[in-house]
Structures
1.
Amino acid sequence: MKTIAKTKLIAFLEALSDDYRVVVPLQQGTEVEMGELDGGRLAVGYRGKTRFSAKECLFPESEVMLTFDNRGAGAVETTEHTPAEKTAVWGVRPCDLAGMATLDAVFLSPPVDTYYYARRANTLLLGLNCHEVGTSCFCRSFAAGPFASSGFDMIFTDVAERFLVESGSEVGARLLEQHGELFAEAGEADRQEAESLRLAAETAFTTTLDVPALLVALQEAFDDGVWEEQAKKCTLCGTCCIVCPTCHCFNVEDVRKTRKLFQRVRYWDSCQFTGFTRMAAENSRSTQGERWRQKIYDKFVYLPAVYDGLLGCTGCGRCLDLCQGNINIVQVLEKVSHGH
Amino acid sequence: MVTNVYLPRPSRIVSVREEAQGIKTFTVRAPEGEPSWPRFAPGQFLEVTVFGVGEAPFSITSAPGSPGELELTVAAVGEVTEELHALAAGDVIGVRGPYGRGFPIGDMKGRRLLFVAGGIGLAPLRSLIGHVISERDDYGEISIYYGARNPSLLCFCEDLTAWESAPHIQVRVTVDSPDAAWQGPVGTVTSLLAKEGYEAGGATAFVCGPPVMIRHTLRVLLEMGFAPKDVITTLERRMECGVGKCGHCTVGKARVCVDGPVFSCAELLDLKEGL
């Protein structure tokens, strides 16, 4: 275990930028957003979470998959756009690291998704534990936070003037060694301080979800009126899916670039949109209640059934913060679990 | 290096046949550089790229195996399908697949088989019927009930005639709206089947058609005494990736592209959103 002075963090990140595109939390007005290291003011000691999840580093909002060059007479030349850029992401919160485990399950289970695989292999994840818990945070209910236990190459803990740093992978350990001049050995006092921060954070949650009770309740709640009732408040904006660290649905579209060049692009989609299941014959989810229920069941019932118990929620709370219809999913789910 | 599962392989259209009003059957050669199609089962589908337009899934219409050519039957109902209809012999499309879980051929041996299809829903069943006829002695009597909205929308008329003349195959064709020349039964295929009756014992039923027809027919077959596990259907859902990632085609926990598109009625009864 090592420590690094907060004043030296920038030196470490700049050193990484020799080999990696470096993505960090940037202070943007009152919000903190992930962005490139040279794109703004590094939010070194940021509290809470970035407004959007860090999933975009592995699964971008839109990406070009293929280019088709139509040469005529049936000759089409196809170019694959497999991402090759190496990226280091610093400041990833435990809830987002946990979300990446769900993305891994979806995209890396056979058949492997080429684009996600390449990006995943080329991405260094440098996590940042949460020593302060937001009012909408409930990651503790999933054991996803406030401190991360896996899913990172390195994990940082904010301890006053410095970060406590641990490696979580061979690459992370090698980097710690390689940049040894920036790091110092952690002492017992550092460890104890981190531990007391963890304990304090763990008891600071004001939002909690009884996950075991919910999983039981959902077995009988499919036909509950609660879904249609809540959906009345839904504005169909899809924000809950956009900000979610585990939502992974995408649409694919061919976009004309020139007369002969076409790009096949995929971009985030949302099961909350009316067109998500629309076909020529009919729409298999025709009401917003069905779509709202789908979001909940997919995260808590279907995904775990397909991917060995893995849940599609990490308790990051962003969908509570940003719901345009002011729907508090946790309150709704607690009602489902513990009666109306 | 990971194989890019999203990469379409160029395949040439060998011929195009007008199947019915607004419906064409495309014969497609194995992808360039491949001597034959990968082995496929009846009920599986291909993701087809019309270059410059987009991609959509279509069930394979022809009988299985590893032939040099296979057939896709497509109704022009959207952007990709309309542009596909504009293509001709010699044109190149992109293909991925075959994908999905086909019909449970192993469980059908020795049984009587009932096929119930509406409109272009006969397309995936035609692949299975072709396979069954190629191994005719392995199965009991075959009944095919087929319906369309009107006579101009009936697909595979030559096949229907050929099947009718084969031994121990009964073919019944009906339309909702007859024209002056129509001499057959009038009404939906499900009501014709219900009226004529069918002995469910020892039989397996296969159903495909528009979603509302499938739901209605499954109910009728259960009422006729079929066990849910002996009623098999194949579902259509909006798909993007075809390989279980994009989230569009789910029916409860099942992804139609990888867990289906073929499901037994018992499986659907078990799935949330199934029936």
2.
Amino acid sequence: MIVCGTEMPRPRSDEVVRLDDVMRHYLVGDEVVRALDGVSFSMRKGSYWAIMGPSGSGKSTMLNILGCLDRPSSGAYWLNGENVAEMDDNQLSDHRLKNLGFIFQSFHLIPQLTVGENIEVPLLYLGLPHAERRYKAEALAERVGMSHRLRHLPSELSGGQRQRVAVARALANDPAVLLADEPTGNLDSATSVQIMGLFQELYEQGKTVILVTHEPDIAKYAKANIVLKDGRILSLHGEGV
Amino acid sequence: MNQILYLWPFVRLGLSDVWRHKTRSFLTMLGMVFGVGSVIAMLAVGEGASQQALDSIKRLGSQNIMVMSVKPTTEDGGNTGSQRGSLAVYGLLYEDEERIKETVPGVTLTVPARMTRRNARLGERQLEMRVVETNPDWFEVVQRPVLAGRVLGEHDLRMRANVCVLTEHGVRRLLAAEEMIGQRIRIASGVFEVIGIVKNETGGTVRAPDSEADAYIPITTGTQLFGEANIRYSAGGMEGEKVELSQIIVKMADTEAVEPGSKAIEAVLARFHKKRDFRIDVPLTLLREAERTKRTYNIVLGAIAGISLLVGGIGIMNIMLASVTERTKEIGIRRAIGARRSRIVVQFLINTCVLSIGGGIVGLLLGVSIPLLITAFTAMPTVVQPYSLVLAFGISVGIGIVFGLYPALRAASLDPIEALRHE
């Protein structure tokens, strides 16, 4: 794709995610590592994607860029109509706060905070008043079936329960995209099925979900998938393209 | 208001963090506790001491100049001429008083006094008293509340009456519970009727003119009874000194006249005294000196307190750096969720301030109670000034921010991707 001057092709209104020739190069010693080497795709609102690929394929880099934790070296990444590649650190932070919900392999709940407080963290940064935060946190816990554990610490929960709390937290800011990094990597198969069921529900409620995984069993829950290899797209198919 | 509510969860987080690491937090806070505690306690003790000094100087009268006889040092030629046998003759003369009154501008009153130590007896009770031979003006210049009876009058002076006025202190030791006014006591070779009692000045670091068990008698009576020589008998024989006046108190018209007045007195006396056998004390100058001393004292105290606070602050910074390392992952999570760097900075600053203010509050309690204990056990006056409490709080917050800034900035500068990966 050729970008000429100011005539950057803007994404269509139903494209919640769009990458135009994204490159991400690292300098390791004297050697340039091309973690992403010209990736372009777009995802429609309300679609359910899996990003796959073996380790070293550029999957983590893709996750960091999609998650606005990192910026492309070149190319454009449009998330919810804004080009992330041109943002500074504060804008990136605000963008994550408004448009993204992270779900991690090892849950990443804050151990000192209770379940309710963990869910409230994004709401706190959004500047919601105390009563509203509490009310929303309770509703979100209810949604993931964790309302009976609001006052517990994460250490008092099982893995599956922790991941439910993490999903509730990711939903707190009503994000444009839910980004899940190996969400079942630390769970047994029965619990995995339950969590994947939760994602299915969210998809059916109209959320855009992106799974980053190397497990085909998990990837098959998604409606479309991208396979990366050596920083390039090996294959891309499914609905929502 | 909204901002405060926004900060509250972080304050709670800070408090719970402090609580979780109880021992560590306690040890860290100790630095602040001692720092703030010593600031308040030292300020209180210093203020107490200096107020006491200033009070006693003020009581000497800021319009007064005290001219005192002093024995010249031998190097100063004390052995030549003036010593007849073993009788040392030196000091101020009635003439000096006249000269001061005549020549120094702005003098309103001069009070001569001769002070000797003599035994006073009442029955079998005996007490060495300072006998002040003076005139009624003394009580004009050194104003003390009269507890009973009256002070010396012109009449007593003219009649060379055998009357004395005692200080409360002397009365209590010599007369005990007996009827005081009208009692007759023996002072050296004379018998005196007690006509009045004046209040003692208590304590003080500067010698007040009547700081002890004093007996005031008319100077005319004293001259007649005791003469002007004071002779002591000791193992080696007898030694004595002849001093016409041991003190002249000069009262000036106003405080403005005090400093030039003291220079003029100096000049007048120097012309007639070959040896340096007098000393001029100006309470006003002493006052200024005391104020200067107080300032120096405060600087020294401030430096000591500053060092202990610095040490306390470094302790806090150290712990916060450890805390940042421990909480790297939490920082990563918060950044991923969308916290700006500045919010991480605020969070860690609050955490540091919780530590420093916590230490500051305990230190404040310590700093307020130590002066109370000092006053209770040593009768040393202490003054805890309200501003020192505000100061302590300000210091705590300041230390928290200054020493918390570096760890907080370090926390905020972490790369979120790296921080999330941290185990």
